[in-house]
Q: What sequence folds into this?
């Protein structure tokens, strides 16, 4: 039911105003700043330089390196989250023994502050005082440099992301699984379809819309990663684990290069938008096929 | 027992898998829990696992933390609590109002009015600042007011072009969530600093951070609440309308009480998001209104390997949210969040 009433304006304007003031306002400011040469330290008079900030960023190998690192972390972490999350959701939905305990336990990581998670990870991964290295030594491995060697550090960050955000995938897919009708499965059972066939023939296609949404949200969120990396490695060793947001923070807050940072954050926005659009464009045919 | 339940060997395999994942999930939390009860000697000597068996628990870390010997924990905790609670209450209320109006009323906005807003805001800002030589903040405020005024007036004029409906407005709100927060956080910091020069101190104030959090929680609140309101039966509202009950009383007296579970879930999700938020707090606060994540992150560089103290600090940030996870999962079991994902 839709109705007309002038009171509707009083309902929507508070939200509209807050969003306009706090998000659009700064956006206008940083969009105009991204076309200027503006530094606070040393203070130089600002001047209009057109697309120079953008071109110098695009020519900066560090930018591409950082973009590559962020993509690697985001795609690997989200892929793992999705596969593990789907498996766990399936198990919970088919009532493994102790399902109630699992549900509460599995939800927790999502609500823990990422900085706290990163600090715990640093303890667990500590070369001399952490339990993981002791465990690895027990298995016969040498003492592994989890946070100080590029490959291991990237792996550690991905593991932390998986630990923290798989619960989100579980939560959403579980809710989706519960809405699936039973009679389809009963029919499949009569036809003697194997569980494997039932999964690919019924469960997966029917959950495709939710899956697409979940992966989309996770992917976009993963591209914004900063707190975990900030605490775990600080972007190191060198800049090998630096992410886009961390790079922007370094440029803006350490070097006070305002025009450059604004341009960088807009490139990140464009980057995320392109990835989102490509992702949806690739998946649209499949979504429509299953409708 | 439904046909979808696992049988026989598969069931036990699934259980084994779940147990492995549970161990992976809970071990870090267990670890931080026991580490906070370790004495300095117990930490440096290498990993130990079970209290009373291979290390003697001590309350050193907690005593130091609670006595305030380790920085201003109490005031940071209070700042986090005050900002978290008030921002999530405000966001839930404002967002619920907007979501309700988007579900029950027809909105029509011309695309052109939106474009007018953007052009007047950007153009006016550049004009006032660079050509008329006005200060940054003043130029922003004037151009913003002009843009808002012109676009509202233009909404009445019979302009050509496509018309945006409720669906598009919801999409616009939700798409705000896609913005990388660094875009806004950094610009917001600069804007707040400019406002400070005009005499309105916003950096490191209650208002400044709370306002930012409200704005950034609104997309998710509107998204969630819209689904809850859509699921409500309209008959009750229609009956009230026949009796000429004004809209605001229908909303506060009938609709809000009916959607209490949805409001509570949305409030909790918003609170968790604000409680754990790092980037805005990093940019917009520096001492008085610093929140827990910043303090916890700072432990790392200040304390080095004092893991017992760091663990206790991290737990202060974790425990309130873990309690909430328990409450939330109870709500979840009643099928409450089902609607939220469609």
A:
């Amino acid at each position: 039911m839709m109705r007309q009433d002038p009171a509707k304006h009083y309902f929507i304007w508070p939200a509209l105003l807050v969003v306009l003031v706090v998000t659009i306002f700064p956006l206008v400011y940083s969009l105009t700043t991204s076309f200027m040469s503006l530094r606070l330290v040393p203070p130089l008079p600002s001047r209009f330089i057109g697309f120079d900030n953008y071109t110098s960023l695009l020519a900066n190998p560090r930018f591409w390196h950082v973009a590559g690192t962020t993509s690697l972390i985001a795609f690997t972490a989200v892929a793992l989250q999705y596969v593990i999350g789907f498996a766990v959701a399936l198990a919970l939905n088919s009532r493994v023994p102790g399902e109630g305990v699992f549900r509460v336990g599995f939800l927790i990581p999502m609500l823990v502050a990422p900085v706290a998670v990163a600090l715990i990870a640093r303890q667990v991964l500590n070369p001399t005082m952490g339990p993981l290295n002791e465990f690895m030594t027990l298995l016969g491995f040498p003492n592994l440099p989890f946070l100080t060697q590029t490959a291991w550090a990237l792996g550690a960050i991905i593991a932390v992301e998986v630990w923290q955000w798989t619960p989100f995938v579980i939560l959403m897919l579980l809710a989706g699984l519960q809405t699936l009708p039973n009679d389809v499965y009963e029919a499949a059972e009569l036809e003697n379809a194997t569980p494997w066939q039932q999964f690919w023939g019924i469960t997966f296609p029917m959950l495709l819309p939710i899956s697409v949404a979940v992966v989309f949200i996770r992917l976009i969120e993963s591209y914004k990663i900063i707190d975990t990396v900030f605490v775990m490695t600080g972007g190191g060793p060198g800049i090998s684990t630096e992410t886009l947001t961390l790079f922007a923070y370094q440029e803006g807050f350490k070097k006070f290069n305002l025009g450059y940072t604004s341009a960088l954050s807009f490139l990140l926005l464009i980057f995320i938008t392109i990835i989102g659009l490509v992702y949806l464009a690739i998946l649209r045919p499949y979504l429509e096929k299953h409708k | 027992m439904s046909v979808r339940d696992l049988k026989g060997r598969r069931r036990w395999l699934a259980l084994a898998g779940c147990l492995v994942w549970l161990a992976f999930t809970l071990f870090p939390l267990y670890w931080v829990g026991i580490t906070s009860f370790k004495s300095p000697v117990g930490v440096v000597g290498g990993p130990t696992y079970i209290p009373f068996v291979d290390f003697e628990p001590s309350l050193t870390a907690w005593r130091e933390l609670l006595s305030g010997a380790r920085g201003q924990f109490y005031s940071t905790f209070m700042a986090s609590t005050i900002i978290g609670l008030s921002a999530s209450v405000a966001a839930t209320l404002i967002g619920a109002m907007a979501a309700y109006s988007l579900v029950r009323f027809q909105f029509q906005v011309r695309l052109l009015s939106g474009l007018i807003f953007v052009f007047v805001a950007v153009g006016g800002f550049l004009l006032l600042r660079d050509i008329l030589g006005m200060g940054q903040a003043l130029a922003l405020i004037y151009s913003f007011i002009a843009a808002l005024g012109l676009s509202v007036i233009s909404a009445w004029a019979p302009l050509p072009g496509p018309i945006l409906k409720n669906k598009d407005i919801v999409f616009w709100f939700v798409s705000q969530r896609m913005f990388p927060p660094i875009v806004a956080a950094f610009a917001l910091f600069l804007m707040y600093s400019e406002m400070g020069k005009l005499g309105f101190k916003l950096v490191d104030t209650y208002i400044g951070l709370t306002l930012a959090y409200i704005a950034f929680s609104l997309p998710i609140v509107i998204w969630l609440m819209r689904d809850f309101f859509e699921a409500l039966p309209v008959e009750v509202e229609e009956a009230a309308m026949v009796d000429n009950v004004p809209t605001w009383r229908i909303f506060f007296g009938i609709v809000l009480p009916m959607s209490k579970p949805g409001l509570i879930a949305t409030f909790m999700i918003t609170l968790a998001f604000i409680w754990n938020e790092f980037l805005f707090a990093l940019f917009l606060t520096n001492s008085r209104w610093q929140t827990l994540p910043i303090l916890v992150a700072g432990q790392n560089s200040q304390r080095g390997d004092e893991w017992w103290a760091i663990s206790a600090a991290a737990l202060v940030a974790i425990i309130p949210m873990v309690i909430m996870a328990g409450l939330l999962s109870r709500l979840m079991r009643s099928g409450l969040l089902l609607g939220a994902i469609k």
About this structure: The domain at 51-289 of chain A is CATH 1.10.3720.10 (MetI-like fold). Chain A has one domain: 51-289.
